[in-house]
Amino acid sequence: MPLTRELLSDTISKAISLGSGRNFKQSVELLFTFSGFDKKSPEIRFRDAVLLPKGLGRSVKILVVADGGMRLNAQKLGVDTLGTDQLKNLSKRDVKKIARKYDWFLVATEAMSLAGRILGPALGPRGKAPIPVPPQANLELLLRQYSSSTWLRNREQNWVGCRIGTEDMSADDLAENAMSVIEFVKNKIKRPLEGSVRIYVKTTMGPAVEVLYT
Q: Is the entire prediction scored with pTM above 0.85?
């Protein structure tokens, strides 16, 4: 069966049904396993934000690390900020709390080295990373994009996964999000998905259900 939005919608509905019954709102996740690639191949090394047309189904927390005009602009846009002086004075406990609290960390390019050194050890194990923002970037546009983006990231592994929404979203909306991620992966690996990639859908606590396409 071809890899269509309808097939994805049916598979997502099955995964949500099998994973239902939890006392919290679960995420819906999309997983890819790769065959025929070296684990160190750049084609399957991911550190990418992918825009989801239907969003993540929940509020997304973004922290901007910057000084001067960029920080003032972020504050005007209603986003939490952290100056470099504050960053330097964070305790390890504070760093861990920040790493748990926020989904995205947008960092002025001149503060990247400092942010990587201080925040990196807490972000890495959580599959997060500081994202550089150049001085002339349109911060408002970036905030809108990352509010509706998911994070594809792995380390020399033959698989990668990401969230595509929450279980209370419609299967059709989740399928549209899934298709955007699949297209991104297809373009990244530069070869047909058939025979190279197996795709699965699951909820946070539910079993993985394979998308059976040919």
A: yes
